Amino acid sequence: MPSWKRVLVYFVSEVSENHIFSFSAALSYYFLLALFPALIALATIVGLLPIPHLFNTIVGAMAQVVPPQSMGLVRRVVSDVMSHNHPALLSFGLIGALWVCSSAFATMIEALNVTYHVPETRPFWRVRLLALELTLLSGVLTSVAFAFVIVGPYFGRFLSARFDLRLAFVIAWPILQHVLAAILMVLAIEGLYFLAPDVKQSLSASLPGAVFAVIAWLLLSDGLSLYLQKFGHLNRTYGVLGGAIALLVWLYWSGFVILLGAMLNTGITKFKGEAEMAARPSEDQEVRSKVAGAN
Fold this sequence. Notes:
mainly alpha
């Protein structure tokens, strides 16, 4: 069987054996709990910056990947909370977001250990600290990626006017800013695959799954939004809870895609190792070749 077919068969069989659906459900729960404290903290910080309507611009950028039904819920919750402005919101939002996000990454560490078929040998405090580190790393890279998308057009116009750049730069910059944002997202996922599981691996071994996860996540977000707009009609089934259900479904499949990328890495590593072992001569073959050479 060709290598890509073997990876695909391994890919499908491991989904059920590694309880990927159960881990995705757990991750969606933590992601949902962490989303609103993070948005509260973000809205409070953005409110201190001298940039008009910046938070609305950020929410508009989120609407490019989050289902439209869910964005209405997100806007209502954040506006309701921020209308009762209080200085404690910043500290509460940051502490709440860090704690719940670190819990999500702790669950992600457990799921990746199962995906990579390795036991957890690190102490509890080290795993929790690693979860907090992954929260900060992913948060920074994702924020910079969103910054490229949000501030990118203004920054491109500034560079063009400041340095008198040619028309080619003006045309290429919108594409370049999205490419840079995608690279940062890949780095965030690759850092997760490289640091989270209790296994030693190279950065190159975690790259294919990270690229796959980002591309699949973007396609999934667009496809899910289109489905919910045209065929889902969650409001008819769940009423006012339709937006919350759509958000939970999107978070569920987002976690699922991240775990699929890790499974792709394990499949490639497994069959690459088997191919290298098959190409390597055995000890008996080496002895026989030495004896034949001596004769």
